């Protein structure tokens, strides 16, 4: 089943002499449950692409469909709900709220939705993410690996159909990096959740089902990994 369709996506920043074509006519489709690695040089448009899929940044041209829904053909309110429920974003530097503890950070998207926290899901996530006993800790009381596990918890709490990770291991050593990837793969396989990961790490890219390479705002390679 197709979960994501990116159609002729183009993004231009700035004007006149400062104009940058961050993305230039990118099109591809992703099926539910696929794990796609997005690779390419710095500045090639990878983050821009992920943000547009995540409903964070409006395209200049082209369309993004998630679950058949035209992401940017929604009201602001619908778009905000889309960002909290249908996609889960994970960043290199975690983007946790410093004054909120582990549980508060993980449940933030649910509370912002005005919904009740599913305690069973929270407790399952804390266990899977190996954060038991850390519930009341603030981000600055946690190691980098633990902080990234909290940000994974926040991304997964609402069981989104697509998880979007922008260099999730870019700030971690190789042991912690592999741990994070294993957690993302677990949720990908167990819940048939679609996973898009931007990475510079070849070892991580080779664990994906498919690699899309971006160069200068265009797709330069799109191939399925055969094992
Ligand atoms: P990557 O993630 O592959 O490193 P980005 O998507 O971050 O690439 O950036 C692609 C291009 O768009 C770069 O030239 C970058 O400088 C430019 N760019 C990204 N975000 C902005 C912005 N908010 N304003 C202006 N230019 C931007
Ligand atoms: P990791 O093996 O994940 O890199 P560290 O070696 O950084 O972990 O930390 C070892 C333990 O100390 C971890 O369980 C972590 O929770 C705890 N810890 C790390 N930094 C702090 C801190 N600033 N305050 C309190 N506890 C911390």
Automatic annotation (TrEMBL):
Belongs to the ABC transporter superfamily. It comes from the Bacteria. The keyword Membrane does not apply. The lineage of its organism: Bacteria, Bacillati, Bacillota, Clostridia, Lachnospirales. GO terms for molecular function: ATP binding; ATP hydrolysis activity; transmembrane transporter activity. This is ABC transporter related. It comes from Lachnoclostridium phytofermentans (strain ATCC 700394 / DSM 18823 / ISDg). InterPro entries: AAA+_ATPase, ABC_transporter-like_ATP-bd, ABC_transporter-like_CS, MacB-like_ATP-bd, P-loop_NTPase. Residues 4-227 form the ABC transporter domain. Keywords: ATP-binding, Nucleotide-binding, Transport. The keyword Cell inner membrane does not apply. GO terms for cellular component: membrane protein complex.
């Amino acid at each position: 089943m197709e979960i994501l369709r990116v159609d002729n996506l183009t993004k231009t920043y700035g004007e006149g002499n400062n104009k940058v074509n961050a993305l230039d006519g990118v099109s591809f489709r992703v099926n539910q449950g696929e794990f796609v690695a997005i690779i390419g040089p710095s500045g090639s448009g990878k983050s821009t692409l992920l943000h547009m899929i995540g409903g964070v940044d409006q395209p200049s041209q082209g369309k993004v469909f998630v679950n058949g829904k035209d992401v940017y053909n929604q009201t602001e309110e619908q778009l905000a709900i889309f960002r909290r429920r249908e996609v889960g974003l994970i960043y290199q530097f975690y983007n946790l709220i410093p004054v909120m503890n582990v549980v508060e950070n993980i449940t933030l998207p649910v509370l912002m939705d005005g919904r009740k926290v599913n305690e069973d899901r929270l407790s399952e996530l804390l266990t899977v993410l190996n954060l038991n006993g850390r519930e009341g800790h603030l981000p600055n009381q946690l190691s980098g690996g633990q902080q990234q596990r909290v940000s994974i918890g926040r991304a997964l709490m609402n069981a989104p159909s697509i998880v979007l990770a922008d260099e999730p291991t870019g700030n971690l050593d190789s042991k912690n990096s592999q741990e994070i990837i294993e957690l993302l793969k677990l949720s990908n396989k167990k819940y048939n959740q679609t996973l898009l990961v931007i990475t510079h790490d070849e070892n991580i890219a080779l664990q994906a089902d498919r690699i899309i390479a971006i160069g200068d705002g265009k797709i330069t390679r799109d191939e399925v990994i055969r094992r």
